[in-house]
Design brief:
Elements: H1 2-10, H2 12-45, E1 60-71, E2 81-92, E3 101-113, E4 120-133, E5 140-154, E6 159-176, E7 179-192, E8 195-209, H3 239-247, H4 253-262, E9 278-285, H5 298-309, E10 314-320, H6 328-349, E11 356-360, H7 373-379, E12 381-388, H8 391-421, E13 425-429, E14 436-437, E15 440-450, E16 456-463, E17 471-474, E18 484-487, E19 492-501, E20 510-519, E21 526-536, E22 540-546, E23 550-551, E24 556-565, E25 571-579, E26 584-587, E27 594-597, E28 601-609, E29 614-623, E30 632-641, E31 646-657
Parallel strand pairs: 10-11, 14-21, 23-31
Antiparallel strand pairs: 1-2, 1-8, 2-3, 3-4, 4-5, 5-6, 6-7, 7-8, 9-12, 10-12, 13-15, 15-19, 16-18, 16-20, 17-19, 20-21, 22-24, 24-29, 25-28, 25-30, 26-29, 27-28, 30-31
Length: 660
């Protein structure tokens, strides 16, 4: 790189044209990014609250055109030089500052007038910096930097190239999630000859991050119109409100609005309107998370009791409600407690229990907007309707309650389907790339990436034969087993599958290893990848031959053993044990090394038999003179494969003693 830069500096006329071209290019690039930022800023301002994904957070691959100034040491007699440059970097920003790190390469061009009118020096700076970013809020990203590089200076007399060391700091301010304004300051220690010179650099630029989402304008949610409930009839619940009640798990209005925006539209059965002769009605409001009836309502409850005692034909329907904050099950329980407390007060006051019916509705029947404090207060209520007893009305009310229960359940199922559709991931598992030797340690790399919109947690399991003793570990820490993973949107986990194929596996035997990631929220949402494992093992076949089928006493016969390795893996430390018949004695010395044990046992040792190769063993024996005619000569052979620790035995009835 130094030679290329030096060549450019020696061609001064061309270099001046390059200087003008670079300056125009950098200004054009900076202008384009500024215009882009101004055009997209209104969309950013109109963005409503949404969960922050990984693409919204700082970090990643970036390119930064910069301009600035370069200040030479006083002894160099040069004026402040304007800088034009470009930076290419990559940052990894973690929640823990200790895990954040970045790297950035810089190339700058400068032109400086020599003090005293002695001409103009031109040159360039190049360096590689390690950066340490740490978050100071959603917008600001300060960082420290240290690195090494070089400076090439073209003077009228000569061209100099010197080593430099630099350190400093900077800060970035994010206009968008993909665009940031940056300010840098560095001290450069230049080693020239036998001296060190302290120069300084100040730079300003724009950083563009690749792969970040563009923030798009969203239409604000319409505020539901406030309606006054008429207790003469049951009011049907909008599907969006039912879904909102089923999936809402937050306590503030921002979470409530976000859940309503994300929930799917579901067609739900509408509760039929049940009209009746209402004698009186009453609404009682409660404090947040409370089921205690306030004393201010005691007088009105006394009036309801008096009305019920005056006529046995009257019944009171007590309906408990809640706001949409918190979990659905807790809200239903709270609304039931409120209704039962009101019913208990009426019974203590003297009303007949047969005239009182209490029902819990949870957040399913709001009368006001749950996104506001005032609306949530109005929804924390119990309503009392005193009506004439009507059998048909009772049947219709029961049907209405059943329809309401069905509506809530359908909304819950719809919300669950919608939530499952947001869970997306991919698992990649390395292929074995061929047969895997038995009795060996092996590993396969795997990756998992969260392709969904939310941070998800998975239970990671491994499907492999039990005898493989397979485990899952981190790629960079194989001593750390993993069972669960928590991944942010777009985050990738790299791991290893460690396993050992036992010696008992047969050559060519096929099995598989699979990695499965199961959502901790929904057990039926999972992602998996399988890799085929083909075992490689030696497979020794033994063939025995005799030079004669009938032998006479005193006659010599040759016994030949042929060992063929038909497996795909070499056999090592093969032992052949040959038990001679008692009627014969060995003659001469076989070519294969052997040892002789008691009772005519010959033990041969073979270091290695390659795949698809043969080993031959020939033994010459002489039939004893006293052998009787008609006797069978039995040859027992045992082959021990040292790789598999496998024994193969065979008995050959190969020859008969005949009379002389």
């Amino acid at each position: 790189m130094v030679e290329v830069i030096t060549l450019l500096l020696y061609n001064a006329p061309k270099f001046r044209r390059l200087e003008m071209y670079l300056a125009k290019t950098f200004f054009a690039l900076i202008t384009t990014i500024c215009i882009s930022a101004m055009l997209t800023f209104p969309a950013f301002a109109a963005e409503i609250a949404r969960p922050q994904s990984k693409s919204d957070s700082p970090g990643g691959l970036s390119v930064s055109p910069t301009i600035g100034g370069y200040f030479f040491a006083g002894s160099e007699q040069r004026s402040v030089a304007p800088l034009y440059g470009i930076k290419i970097g990559y940052e990894k920003i973690e929640k823990s500052g200790a895990d954040s790190l970045g790297v950035e390469g810089t190339l700058n061009y400068f032109s400086s007038a020599v003090k005293g009118g002695a001409g103009t020096d031109k040159g360039c700076l190049y360096r590689l910096d390690a950066t340490y970013p740490f978050s100071a809020g959603k917008k600001w990203l300060p960082f420290l930097a240290v690195g090494v590089g070089g400076i090439v200076t073209d003077t009228p007399a000569q061209t100099n190239s010197n080593f430099l060391f630099n350190y400093g700091a900077g800060v970035k301010y994010f206009i968008e999630n993909y665009l940031a304004v940056r300010l840098d300051a560095r001290q450069l220690v230049v080693y020239e000859g036998s001296e060190f010179r302290n120069n300084y650099e100040i730079g300003f630029g724009l950083s563009y991050y690749f792969g970040k989402e563009r923030v798009q304008k969203r239409t604000p949610l319409p505020v539901p119109e406030k309606k006054k409930i008429v207790v003469l009839e049951d009011v049907p619940v909008k599907p969006e409100e039912a879904v909102k009640s089923a999936v809402n798990d937050g306590a503030d209005k921002t979470e409530a609005a976000a859940s309503q925006a994300a929930a799917p539209s579901v067609e739900m059965p509408v509760t039929p309107v049940v009209k009746s002769d209402v004698i009186t009605k009453l609404s009682i409001e409660f404090d947040k998370s409370s089921s205690s009836v306030k004393p201010e309502y005691f007088k009105q409850l006394e009036e309801v009791k008096a009305l019920l005692k005056g006529s046995g034909e009257l019944v009171a329907y007590i309906d408990g409600h809640s706001d949409a904050g918190g979990k659905l099950a807790a809200n239903v329980t709270l609304s039931e407690q409120r209704a039962q407390n009101v019913r208990s007060l009426l019974i203590k006051a003297g009303a007949s229990p047969k005239q009182l019916t209490a029902t819990a509705h949870g957040p399913a029947m709001p009368i006001a907007d749950n996104a506001t404090l005032d609306g949530r207060q109005k929804n924390r209520r119990v309503t009392i309707r005193v009506e004439k007893r009507d059998p048909a009305l009772k049947i219709a009310a029961a049907q209405a309650l059943q329809d309401e229960a069905d509506r809530i359940e359908n909304a819950r199922l719809a919300a669950q389907i919608f939530a499952k559709s947001r869970i997306k991931a991919a698992v990649a598992l390395q292929e074995t790339g061929g047969a895997v030797p038995v009795d060996s340690n092996n590993s396969l790399s795997f990756e998992m990436i969260n392709q969904g919109m939310d941070t998800e947690e998975y239970t990671v399991t491994l499907a492999a034969p039990k005898e493989f003793d397979a485990i899952l570990t981190r790629a960079n820490r194989t001593d750390e087993k993993i069972t669960t993973l928590r991944l942010a949107p777009g985050e990738t986990f790299k791991g290893k599958v460690l396993f050992r194929i036992p010696s008992g596996m047969v050559d060519g035997q096929r099995t598989s290893v699979a990695v499965r990631a199961v959502s901790t929220k929904y057990s039926d949402v999972f992602f998996e990848k399988e890799s085929l494992v083909i075992c490689a093992a030696p497979l020794i076949r033994v063939v025995a031959k005799l030079s004669k089928q009938e032998v006479a006493p005193g006659e010599t016969v040759l016994y030949q053993l042929s060992l063929h390795n038909a497996g795909s893996l070499a056999a090592r430390n093969v032992t052949v044990k040959l038990q001679l018949p008692p009627q014969v004695d060995p003659v001469g010395t076989p070519e294969v090394p052997f040892s002789k044990e008691a009772s005519g046992l010959l033990v041969f040792t073979l270091d290695k038999i390659e795949s698809d190769k043969r080993a031959e063993i020939t033994v010459a024996v002489k039939v004893r003179e006293e052998s009787a005619a008609g006797q069978e000569l039995l040859w027992n052979v045992e082959v021990i494969d040292g790789t598999l620790q496998k024994r193969t035995k065979s008995t050959e009835r190969a020859s008969v003693v005949r009379a002389k």
